[in-house]
Structure formats: C-alpha cells, structure tokens
Amino acid sequence: MHSDLPKFTVEIVMTNKVRVRFAPSPTGALHIGGIRTALYNYLFAKKHGGDFILRIEDTDQTRFVPGAEDYILGSLAWLGLNTDEGIAQGGPCAPYRQSERKDIYMKEALRLVEEDKAYYAFDTPEELDEMRERLKAAKVVNPVYDNVTRMSMKNSITLSQEEVQQRLDRGDPWVIRLKVPKREDVRLQDLVRDWVVVNTANIDDKILIKSDGMPTYHLANVVDDHLMGITHVIRGEEWLPSAPLHVLLYRFLGWENTMPRFAHLPLLLKPTGNGKLSKRDALKHGFPIFPLSWKDPETGEFSEGFQEAGYLPEALINFLALLGWNPGTEQEMFSLEELIEAFSIERIGKSGAKFDIEKAKWFNQQYIKLKPAAELSAFLHTELASQHIECSPEKAAAISELLRERITFPAELYTKGTYFFAAPDEYDEKIVAKKWNEEAVSILSHYALALETLEGVFTSEAAHITLNKVLEENNLGMGRILQALRLALTGSGAGPDLFGIMDVIGREEVIHRLRKAINQLTYEKKA
Ligand code: GLU
Predict the structure, then answer these.
(1) 25 CA: nearest ligand 1 atom
(2) Is it true that the peptide bond before 66 is cis, omega within 30 degrees of 0?
(3) From the alpha carbon of 225, which atom of ligand 1 is closest?
(4) Which of 59, 90, 282, 291 is least surrounded by Cβ atoms within 10 Å, i.e. has the fewest?
(5) Pairing mode of beta strands 85-86, 118-121
(6) How far is ligand 1, taken at its centre, from the CA of residue 61, in Å?
C-alpha cells in the first residue's frame, strides 16, 4: 500500500447537481449485474436529487445486436428505473447514442494528436503480429504496443512529417493511439476501493480511434462523461483496471479538474462463491440471469427472464439492492423510495456478493404476501385465462387469500390450487397409506350425508360445525379425520384452511368429491 497517500474519506462535493449514467453496450440481453449497476446509479441520483442518464455505448459495430436497445429500455421500464435523459426522451446532451457522436470524439482525438498526446499509427495487422512475435521471442511477458515498442513501429512519432502526410493523403489505414508517458504513477481514489495506483509502464498505447473512424470505448466514455457533466461514474468492478487510463485521458484532455468520482461495484459471484456469476451458472442452477426473456437473434437460443419466471419487480429490486450494499441495520424489506432514502456509496462493500437465488425467492414471497387482494386476483385471472378456465371475481379473491401465504410465484395461485377448479384424479399415496382407513371412510360417508341434508347457506363455518357434529356422534376428535378429508377434497395432505377450501368449491362439489374418494380409494385398497 502507498502509505503516503491521504486517508480514505468519501467526500461527495455537492456543489453541482449529481449526474450519473448507465452506459450499456447493446450487445445482447442485459445481464442481471448490469441491472444492479443501473439500480445503484438510479438510487444515488435520486438520493441526491440528481439526474439518471441512459447512454448507449455502441461504438463497437461488430458486436451490435438488433433488439438489444429496446431490451434495455424494456428492462428499465419494467423495474421502474426511470431515466431523466437518454435515447428515449433525449435531453440537453443529445444524442445519447455514441454511434451518433462520432465527430465529437474525432475532434478530441485530433486535438490530442496536435498537442502531441496522441499519434497516428499506420501498422498493418501483419506488422503488429510480427512485433508481438519479436517481443515474445525476446521473452517479453506482455508484448504490447507501448512507450518502448512504439519506437520501432510505423507511426507519426517514428515517421517523418512528410511521410505521415503522404500516408494520410493517400488514404492508408490508420488508427490514433494514446501517447502514454513513461513510468509515471497514475492514481485515483475510488469511492469503493480507495486508492488505486498504477504505473504507466503497465499501460499500453491504447487505440483511441479505430481504423473505421469509430472511437474505442475508452475515448468515447471519457469524452461523453465530461461533456454530459457526469459527476459520478458508478460501474462494475471489471472496469477498475481501465480507470487509471481514463484518469490519464482526463488529464491529457485538460479536464482533470472536473473529472467525475469513480465507484466500482463488487462482482456478483456464483452461488458457490468461487468466481464471477455467469450465464452458465444460472442455467446449471436453474435460475434466470436476464431481467426479461430474450431470444438471441443469431443462435435463436431462448432464455427465460426474471419477469417470466414470476419474480415481482419490487422483489428483484430489493434483492439486487442488497447484493453489494448494506443498509447498516437489520432491515431487509425496502421499497424503492426507502432504498433511495437509505442508499449511500459508503455502504457498498469491497468484496464480491454471492448470488443466492433462494434469497430472491424469499423476497418474492414477502412481496406476494403484501400484495393488495385485487392484484393477486388479477394474477390468478391471467393464469386462468391462459388455461381457458372461467372464474368469478369472488372466487378468485377467495383463492388468492387462501394461497397468499403459501406461494413464491404468482403462477402458483393456479398450480398450487388446481383442486379449486377440478376434483383430484390422483391422491397422495403416502397419505392414503397412513390416513385412509375404514374409520375415515365411515366418518366421511356420514359427513357427506350430513352435508346433503344441511339447511341454510353453506359457509366454511357451517362446514366446520357439521363436521364437529359428525365427529361428536362418533366420539372422535378433529385430528383423526382432517388429513383424510383434505386428501379426499384436494388429493394431498397439506394446504390452506380446509373449511375455506370447502367454501370456495361449494357444498355439491364437496359431497361429490367425498363420494368420489370413497369409491376410488376404497376400491383401490381392496384391489
Ligand atoms: N459500455 C460499458 C459496458 O457495457 C460501460 C462501462 C462504463 O460504465 O464505463 O459495461
């Protein structure tokens, strides 16, 4: 560690409006880690009354994937992470798509060349290969184009001014490279990682403008963050190694005084904790990795998203917020508003956060429990519609209430309650073996009869009282019969309040199911 460096303090100078950006590249579906980055940017901006900007970094034309931009917009909209400026609504720094800002980058790159901070390089791919081979043969560990090797290459440092001009006039292919100084420490104080110091001996002469005239990520990113007035760059840890280069660029461009503060977020780790979370891990453990479903336009491969898997946006937000940040209290449940209130960069951890899908499910359960009745009923109606099943609003509301505490995903309002719509055809064999006996058959037959002659409105209470009477007559307790009764009505040995179920399915159906079970199960036992 560099002990001469000032002690780490997070100082957010609030003289200017906070402006942050989420800057994905449209190379495919957004990984869940990208969503977390967007979320932290959003929370930080809103906490400080600032702006959250969406910029599309599409300068690598070879990696452009059609549909990816809409996917990004759709994902942010689903999660309620509304942007203040960006490709959708425009804004004072438009355009927000880097491919439309080509001239801006070229102008800055040419200025750097003029000021001797960058240079033209004309080397062909073969010449570059040759250079690497030469360096490898000389046992250079990291053979790159840098402040040493540049001297033996074809560029505007080694060639005469006339030859450079000739080549440019002739239309020879060229790139612009950064003239990285020799052996200088570049330092930056990251808001999460504290001081990062890198010697320029370890930075190569990065290409700023490619031969197609497009800028590289590094140049475009720095130029845009400056021109868009970005005050804080909050992004994934994979960009930390590039940060010193960016600092160097700010210095060379003369923008060091207004350079944004950096905060590099810890990695999302595999469920086992060893290594970075990948799409393959998600597949292996059977959980989504993308917010929305995605069909790869090239391979046709389909991936189900968190949305289609039944995760609620508020649950996913809450789960992601705590993957790398902690509120410093025991509180786990946070609405988006509460997250904005509580969020601070100081409480972002340095170490990677294990992706525990069970925790995501737990959050989903909690948010389902809190859902207003009408929303749960609406979920159930959607499920039923896809199964072409009719259901009255009253019945949907009653089912939702009975299952609310027992489900993790909205689809389970139907899948865990199919018995609300049809008599069971199969019965849990274990419960049959344990609880289906002559006594049960006798009591349930009596019960069916008693229900048949029951007068007045059929309610869960009436069903309960009637069963009590039958049991009293036989000198038996409720515990003796409940599971057999549940088995007959639902096919399984566990579930929500049994009398509530009876109320929903109605007297006739209860009687029908009791008789069906008595016939079917007794017959099976004898056979
Ligand atoms: N375009 C980069 C990405 O796809 C953005 C990195 C940054 O935020 O600086 O992750």
Answers:
(1) 4
(2) no
(3) 9
(4) 90
(5) unpaired
(6) 15
Q: Which of 102, 279, 354, 371 is catalytic?
A: 279
Q: What letter represents residue 526's amino acid?
A: K
Q: In the annotation, is 279 catalytic?
A: yes
Helix ranges (DSSP H) in 277-324: 279-285, 313-321
Residue entry with tokens 């009791």: 514
- Residue owning the nearest CA to atom 10 of ligand 1: 24
pLDDT tens string for the chain (527 positions)? Answer: 344 444 433 333 344 799 999 999 999 999 999 999 999 999 999 999 999 999 999 999 889 999 999 999 999 999 999 999 999 999 999 999 999 999 999 999 999 999 999 999 999 999 999 999 999 999 988 899 999 999 999 999 999 999 999 999 999 999 999 999 999 999 999 999 999 999 999 999 999 999 999 999 999 999 999 999 999 999 999 999 999 999 999 999 999 999 999 999 999 999 999 999 999 999 999 999 999 999 999 999 999 999 999 999 999 999 999 999 999 999 999 999 999 999 999 999 999 999 999 999 999 999 999 999 999 999 999 999 999 999 999 999 999 999 999 999 999 999 999 999 999 999 999 999 999 999 999 999 999 999 999 999 999 999 999 999 999 999 999 999 999 999 999 999 999 999 999 999 999 999 999 999 999 997 665 55
Q: How far is the CA of 22 from the centre of ligand 1 (A)?
A: 8
Give the distance (Å) from ligand 1 centre to CA of residue 25: 7
Q: Is the separation of the CB atoms in 143 and 132 below 8 Å?
A: yes
Measured torsion, CA atoms of residues 207, 211, 215, 216, in degrees rounded to the nearest 10:
-50
